[in-house]
Amino acid sequence: MANLAIDTLSLEGIQKDLTDEVQKLVHLSVCESTTSTNEVLKDQARIETCPYFALAAREQTAGKGRRQKSFYSPKDCGVYLSLVVPNKAIVAGIEYITPLAAVAVCRALKQSCGIAPDIKWINDIYYKGNKLCGILCETIQSGAPQHEALTVIGVGINVYSEANTVSNNKGARSTQHASDPKADMVPQSHNFAYLSDTPQKGLLNKICAKLINELITSLEMQKDDVYAAYKGAMFLRGQDVYVTSSNDKNEAYRAHVIDLHPNLQLEVQLEDGSRKLLNYESCTLSLL
């Protein structure tokens, strides 16, 4: 069994792969453990204005996913990062922030690991058919005096399987999360992907640095560029899915994915032959 402690996140390790521009712009902190990097930065932003603050953690004890799901984040097994950006810096507009972040993740993984992952509408990154990464973007208002509109971009990437480490209590917390119906990332599940079976010194830092670089760079992308890059990496077209609606009717039905529209709505064909546009804020998809 490998000891993943040989690869850990560190401030110095991340900074050496940041571009000069990003090093000047981003205020980066790295912590041993925290509840949720998103929650920590949201709390900080409500007290003071902190655009371009970033927090990376070796471990999250209460990581978050969409729709109040938990995001499993064992120590030294992944990249758990949140970055605060001012909404006015998002050239494509705030409605494109999640697709923009997904594109940034894919580019960062290609640069750091040489892989070409896929995007599952709207906020998941897949690799070899399984979930590798989740993204959670949350908009908040900063504290006085600016009261600036900000967005916290949260990214969690599975790098190593916890099953390969002896330093995480042999998966004790995995069992706890496996019984949680809201769990978003549970290591024992064969439905999750990992980047490496064995630890590689410096890999976590490299991925984290490339991710920060790409997130900052992607803020300058135009709408058409975000849409083209996102659609090009999205693998759902032509697939059958199970749609669960979060509206008052709580509908659930099978559908066939036709295409992604420029406004980020997903066009699907229902079993009766009719077509429908899905809004990512009001539904979730499961693969069939």
- Which architecture of the largest domain per CATH? 2-Layer Sandwich
Please describe the biggest sheet, giving its number of strands, its sense, and whether it closes into a barrel.
Answer: 7 strands, mixed
* CATH classification class of the largest domain: Alpha Beta
Examine the coordinates and then state which fold CATH places here, giving the name of the CATH topology of the largest domain.
Answer: BirA Bifunctional Protein, domain 2
Number of helices: 7
Runs in which pLDDT lies below 50 for 5 or more consecutive residues are 166-190
CATH superfamily of the largest domain: Bira Bifunctional Protein, Domain 2
Overall domain count: 2
**Helix amount, in percent?**
25-40%
What oligomeric state best describes the polypeptide chains here? single chain
The first-to-last residue Cα distance is 34 Å
The side-by-side strand order for the widest beta sheet comes to 1-2-3-7-6-5-4
Question: Into which percentage range does the β-strand content fall?
Answer: 25-35%
Output mean pLDDT.
Answer: 86
The helix-strand sequence is HHEHEEHEEEEHHHEEEEE
Helix- and strand-based class?
A: alpha+beta
Number of DSSP strand runs: 12
Q: Tell me, what's the shape?
A: globular
Q: What Rg do the Cα atoms give?
A: 19 Å
Detailed description of the structure:
With 288 residues, the protein is α+β, with helices and mostly antiparallel strands. The protein folds into two domains: 4-233, 2-Layer Sandwich (BirA Bifunctional Protein, domain 2), CATH 3.30.930; 240-287, Roll (SH3 type barrels). Helix content is 25%, strand content 27%. It is built from seven helices and twelve strands. It has a seven-stranded mixed beta sheet, sandwiched between helices. Strands 11-10-9-8-12 form a five-stranded antiparallel beta sheet, with no helix packed on it.
